[in-house]
Specification:
The complex is a heterodimer of chains A (407) and B (221).
Chain A (H helix, E strand, L loop, with lengths): L2 H14 L1 H38 L4 E6 L19 H10 L3 E16 L2 E10 L3 H4 L4 E4 L4 H6 L3 E4 L1 H7 L9 E4 L2 E9 L14 E5 H8 L9 E6 L5 H15 L10 E5 H44 L1 H9 L4 H38 L7 H28 L2 H6 L2
Parallel strand pairs in A: 3-8, 5-7
Antiparallel strand pairs in A: 1-9, 1-10, 2-3, 2-6, 2-9, 4-7, 5-8, 6-7
Chain B lengths: L2 E12 L2 E13 L4 E6 L5 H8 L7 E6 L2 E2 L5 H11 E4 L11 H10 L6 H14 L15 H13 L5 E5 L7 H16 L3 E5 L3 H4 L4 E6 L2 E2 L1
Parallel strand pairs in B: 3-8, 3-9, 6-7, 7-8
Antiparallel strand pairs in B: 1-2, 1-4, 4-5, 9-10
The chains are: A alpha+beta (407), B alpha/beta (221).
The structure holds adenosine-5'-triphosphate and magnesium ion (MG).
Chain lengths: 407, 221
C-alpha cells in the first residue's frame, strides 16, 4: 500500500468525524498555539532588547549607588547617598579610558502646556548624556556646561511628550510648566522608538541634573541615581572597571577589604542577564509545551482507541482482502499523526495570530522564527507517532475472523 | 486439486469447555469446482469456510491450497494468499460504510500488486459494469439495495482475479429474486473457470452448485 493512498485514507477517516477530530486535536492546538505565541513575543522582546542595548551605545558602563550584595541598586536607585556627581567628574578626569560621563537623577512629574497635560518621567542629566547614548536632537540646542552650573529651568522633550502636548506648534522656545514651575523648551529629541515590553523611550523629559536636584527635588545634595559612563573602547573594559572602582573606593574612603558601596555594570553583563532570563523562559516554555503536548497526546490516544473499536469490522474486512498487520498499523498511525499534525498546523496559525494581535495591541515586538514553527510541527507529529502507536498496534494485532464477527 | 483438506479439526475453547467446531474434515475440491456446503445451524459450515479462506487457523490437520501447505505460513503470507488467491462474499455484505461502490471494489487493489490510480479505476469500473451497477458507482452502501450491495461485494471479490471465491450464505439476507441474480452471476463465474465454495441453508440455492456436502456436528457426512 503506497504512502499517498495511506495518507488519503487517513485524511478521509478524519474528515468523516470532523467535530470529533477537531475536539481531539484541541489539546495540541492550544498547546502549540500558546508556545508559538509566547516564544514569538519572548524572542521579539529579547531581540529588541539586545537591539536597544546596542543603540544605547555599546561602550556603556553604569555605576549605581549601593553594593550589589545588599541589593542597593535593585532596592531602588538613589536610596543611598553614596554616589555623587563629583565622583563622576573624578572618574572622567582620572581614568584615561573614559570618554564621557553623565550623572542621572530620576524623578517623575506632570508637565503642562496650555490646556494639555501629561505625566512622564524626568531625567536630570549632564552634558555627556546625549553623546554617550548617541541620541541626537531633532531640533533646538543641547544643554551647555553653563546650564549645569546655574541650574537654569530649561528642558529637552522626547517625541512622545511633544506628541501629547503640542499639536502643530514647534515646541522649541515655548514655556511649559513642570510641578508648577516654568521651564523653557530648548530642544526636542529624535525618536528612539519603543523598547522591549512596550517601554517607551521617547516618553521622557531631559532637564539639567542640577536643576532637577535643586529646583524639582529641592535638595542641596549632589548625590545621583546613576553615573552613565562612555568608554573610549570596549577593549579596555577591564582596566576601566578597575580604575572606576579604585577611584570610587578612594573617594569614599573605603578601608581595604570593605565592601564596595557602589555597583558597576557594563553592557556585557546586561546582555548576559537577558540571555539568562530568556533561556530560563525557554526552559519554562518547554515544560509548559511538553505538558500540553502530553495532555493532547493522551486525548489522541483515547480517541484512536475508540476509533479502533468502532472500526473493528472495517479492520477485519481490510485484513480479509489482504491487508497485512503493518498496513493496518500504518493506517492508524498515519491517522494519529495527521490528527496531531493538523492540530499542530492549526495551533501554529492560531499562535502566530495571537502573537500578532498582542504585537498590535501592546506595541510589543514579535519574532516568529521558522525554527520554532518547524520544531512545533515536528513535535506535534512526534506526539502523533508516540500516542498513536499503541492504538495502531492494538488494531494490527486483531485477528481477521474475530474482527469480522465483531458487533 | 485446488484445495486438499486432510484431517482438519478446529476446537474452540470457551472457559473450561472445549467446543469441537470441526472434526477430522477431509475433502478435496478440484479447480473449476462449485461446492455448496449445507447443514444445520452450528454444524461448523462457517468455521470450515473461514479455515478455507485462511481467516482462521485450524487446530489440527493439513490444508494444501494450490499445492502450498497453508498451515506453515506467517500471517503476512496468509494476507497475501487472501489477497491474490481468493475473494470473499459475506452474508452481511461487509462493505465500507460512507464509501462509494467504486472505492469499495478498489479496496483489495490497495493491498495487492502496486498499480496506478487509473488501473484501479479501470478494473473496478469493468467489474461494476459486469455485475450491472455501472450507474451506481458513486453510491454509498446505504444508498443501495441489499442485492445491489451484494453485487458490489462480488465485484470486490473479483477485482484481483482470484481463482477461488468463498461465499458464506451470500443470499441469506436477500429475497429470492435478488438471490437468483447472485446465483446467475456465480454460475457465469464458474463457467469462466473460477472455483466457488458457498455455504447455504436453501436447497434451491445449493442446487446451482455442481456438488453439495452436508455437515453435522463438525463432520462432513
Ligand atoms: N469464536 C467462537 N468461540 C467459540 N465457539 C465458536 C466460535 N465460533 C463458532 N463457535 C462454535 O462452533 C460451532 C460451529 O459454528 P459455525 O459458525 O461454524 O456454525 P454454522 O454451521 O456456520 O452455523 P450457522 O448456519 O448458524 O451459521 C458452533 O457450535 C459455535 O457455537
Ligand atoms: Mg455460519
Amino acid at each position: 500500500m503506497n504512502a499517498v493512498v495511506t495518507v488519503r485514507i487517513a485524511m478521509r477517516a478524519l474528515q468523516r468525524n470532523k467535530g470529533r477530530s477537531l475536539l481531539t486535536a484541541l489539546g495540541i492546538i492550544i498547546g502549540i498555539a500558546a508556545v508559538i505565541a509566547v516564544v514569538g513575543v519572548g524572542q521579539g522582546a529579547s531581540v529588541s532588547m539586545k537591539d536597544q542595548i546596542s543603540t544605547m551605545g555599546s561602550n556603556l558602563v553604569m555605576v549605581f549607588p549601593g553594593s550589589q550584595r545588599t541589593g542597593g541598586f535593585r532596592g531602588g536607585s538613589g536610596t543611598q547617598q553614596t554616589l555623587t556627581a563629583e565622583d563622576g567628574d573624578a572618574i572622567l578626569k582620572d581614568c584615561p579610558y573614559v570618554a564621557a560621563m553623565s550623572p542621572i537623577v530620576r524623578t517623575g512629574a506632570q508637565i503642562v502646556y496650555r490646556e494639555n497635560d501629561w505625566a512622564t518621567s524626568i531625567q536630570g542629566i549632564g552634558t555627556g548624556y546625549l553623546p554617550v547614548r548617541s541620541w541626537d536632537l531633532a531640533s533646538g540646542e543641547p544643554f551647555t556646561e553653563n546650564d549645569m552650573h546655574t541650574g537654569v529651568r530649561v528642558c529637552i522633550l522626547g517625541q512622545t511628550v511633544v506628541d501629547q502636548l503640542f499639536a502643530d506648534d514647534d515646541p522649541v522656545g515655548k514655556m511649559v510648566r513642570i510641578r508648577n514651575m516654568s521651564f523653557r523648551v530648548i530642544g526636542v529629541l529624535t525618536r528612539k522608538g519603543s523598547a522591549a515590553f512596550g517601554q517607551d523611550q521617547d516618553d521622557t523629559i531631559l532637564v539639567p541634573w542640577t536643576t532637577t536636584r535643586r529646583v524639582l527635588q529641592n535638595s542641596p545634595f549632589n548625590n545621583v541615581n546613576q553615573l552613565l559612563i562612555g568608554l573610549t573602547s570596549m577593549d579596555t573594559l577591564a582596566q576601566a572597571r578597575e580604575d572606576i572602582a579604585g577611584i570610587l573606593r578612594q573617594r569614599h574612603r573605603l578601608a581595604p577589604g570593605a565592601e564596595d558601596d557602589f555597583t558597576v555594570i557594563d553592557m556585557t553583563e546586561i546582555t548576559q542577564t537577558i540571555t539568562k532570563v530568556s533561556s530560563l523562559m525557554t526552559v519554562l516554555l518547554a515544560v509548559i509545551a511538553s505538558i500540553s503536548l502530553v495532555v493532547g497526546g493522551i486525548g489522541i490516544m483515547n480517541i484512536m482507541l475508540v476509533s479502533v473499536t468502532e472500526r473493528t469490522r472495517e479492520i477485519g474486512l481490510r485484513m480479509a482482502v489482504g491487508a497485512r498487520r503493518r498496513d493496518i498499523l500504518l493506517q492508524f498511525l498515519v491517522e494519529a499523526v495527521a490528527l496531531a499534525g493538523a492540530g499542530g498546523i492549526l495551533g501554529i496559525v492560531l499562535g502566530i495570530g495571537a502573537a500578532l494581535t498582542v504585537a498590535q495591541v501592546n506595541h510589543w515586538p514579535v519574532l516568529i522564527s521558522p525554527g520554532s514553527v518547524l520544531l512545533a510541527l515536528s513535535f506535534s507529529a512526534g506526539v502523533g507517532v508516540f500516542f498513536g502507536f499503541y492504538p495502531a498496534w492494538r488494531a494490527a494485532r486483531l485477528s481477521p475472523i474475530e474482527s469480522l464477527r465483531h458487533e | 486439486m485446488l484445495i486438499e483438506l486432510r484431517h482438519i479439526s478446529k476446537t474452540y475453547r470457551v472457559g473450561e469447555i472445549d467446543i469441537p467446531a470441526l472434526r477430522d474434515v477431509t475433502i478435496s475440491i478440484e479447480r473449476g469446482g462449485f461446492l455448496a456446503i449445507m447443514g444445520a445451524s452450528g454444524s461448523g459450515k462457517s468455521t470450515l469456510l473461514n479455515v478455507l479462506g485462511c481467516l482462521d487457523r485450524p487446530t489440527g490437520g493439513e490444508y494444501r491450497l494450490d499445492g502450498e501447505e497453508v498451515g506453515r505460513l506467517s500471517s503476512d503470507a496468509l494476507a497475501r494468499v487472501r489477497n491474490r488467491k481468493m475473494g470473499f462474499v459475506f452474508q452481511n455484505f461487509n462493505l465500507l460504510t460512507r464509501t462509494s461502490a467504486l472505492e469499495n471494489v478498489e479496496l483489495p487493489l490497495y493491498y495487492g500488486i502496486p498499480c496506478t490510480r487509473e488501473e484501479r479505476r479501470r478494473k473496478a469500473l469493468a467489474l461494476l459494469d459486469r455485475v450491472g451497477l455501472s450507474d451506481r458507482i458513486d453510491h454509498h452502501p446505504s444508498q443501495l439495495s441489499g442485492g445491489q450491495q451484494q453485487r458490489v461485494a462480488i465485484a470486490r471479490a473479483l477485482v484481483n482475479d482470484p481463482p477461488l471465491i468463498l461465499a458464506d450464505e451470500p443470499t441469506g439476507n436477500l429475497d429470492s429474486r435478488a438471490g437468483a441474480d447472485i446465483m446467475r452471476i456465480f454460475k457465469e463465474l464458474n463457467d469462466e473457470g473460477i472455483t466457488l465454495i458457498m455455504v447455504t441453508h436453501e436447497p434451491d440455492i445449493a442446487a446451482c452448485a455442481k456438488r453439495t456436502i452436508h455437515m453435522r456436528d463438525g463432520e462432513v457426512t
